[in-house]
Design goal:
The protein is built from 7 helices and 5 strands. The protein is 63% helix and 17% strand. The longest helix has 43 residues.
Length: 286
């Protein structure tokens, strides 16, 4: 009998100990799911040789935390050094409400660390209580453009060489000499333009632009900027301001006339006009 009681007690205790563990596990899973939802989908961009990428992220977080988040991202860039990360622009603005804040941070990054820097930037926002509102990663085939430019330049140089050879064999007053010289000038102008375009494509491969945009979000669900409840709140506030304005205008226009009427009534009562009128009324029947 004692052995049965001991066995039942042990089973009860084991079941109780498993429930808190399973509850804690479920809580951790829920927290992880919330964190992933706040960070947005995992963005894995396969590095493609010759493709110039540009990154743009939109972050939503409470207005009072935007300045700190922007500064944290700027400091993370500065720690990498100007050879790997440079700040090319910053913007910070506060609207009519103190919490209505928008900001922008523009960076130029080493292409080999751009994706990692963006991921770390998202993690910093999530830890600060914000979330990823959107991400745009675009690519341009700069390598293909460079190849096309080199091919066009090679053809132009070959044509220019043929023209120079013809000009060297022609007489000074040959009729076709003017047309060949004009064509040579056009080719040289095209070569200069293509050299500039090629330099731009090479620069786009050397640095990767990245833009962080920050917009304020409410700590209360449903009151984010653009949400129906927030829009209704703004309309109600505007209507209240309009009603107060109309009331003030009515009071401002009517108050002087009301005071004037009260003054006339008071003068009528305190003066002898009222008593004299009574005497006239009493004298009429006589």
């Amino acid at each position: 009998m004692r052995h049965r009681i001991f066995l039942v007690t042990a089973l009860i205790l084991a079941g109780c100990s498993q429930k808190p563990e399973s509850g804690a596990r479920e809580g951790r899973n829920a927290d992880a799911a919330m964190s992933e939802a706040a960070a947005g989908p995992g963005i894995e961009v396969t590095a493609a040789p010759g493709v110039a990428f540009a990154y743009e992220y939109l972050f939503r977080l409470p207005g009072q935390g935007i300045a700190r988040a922007q500064e944290a991202h700027a400091q993370a860039c500065e720690k990498l050094g100007i050879a790997r990360c440079r700040i090319s622009g910053m913007h910070y603005a506060v609207g009519e409400a103190p919490a209505d804040v928008t900001a922008t941070l523009n960076l130029k990054l080493d292409p080999t660390i751009a994706r990692k820097f963006g991921t770390e930037g998202i993690d910093a926002i999530v830890k600060a209580g914000g979330s990823l509102g959107g991400a745009d990663i675009t690519g341009v085939d700069a390598g293909g453009a460079i190849t096309a430019i080199d091919r066009a330049v090679a053809g132009a140089r070959a044509e220019l060489q043929e023209i120079d050879q013809k000009l060297a064999t022609l007489r000074a007053k040959a009729p076709e000499r003017f047309a060949l010289a004009q064509r040579a000038t056009e080719i040289r102008q095209q070569l200069a333009e293509r050299a500039s375009s090629r330099s731009e494509q090479v620069d786009s491969l050397a640095t990767t632009p990245m833009t962080f945009r920050y917009v304020a979000s409410s700590a209360i669900p449903g009151f984010d900027s653009g949400a129906p409840l927030y829009t209704g709140y703004l309309i109600g506030k505007q209507s209240l301001f309009v009603a107060l304005t109309v009331l003030i205008v009515v009071i401002g226009v009517g108050a002087p006339w009301l005071l004037f009427a009260l003054l006339i009534g008071w003068l009528y009562r305190v003066s002898g006009l009222r008593a004299l009128r009574r005497r006239w009324k009493n004298a009429d029947p006589a």
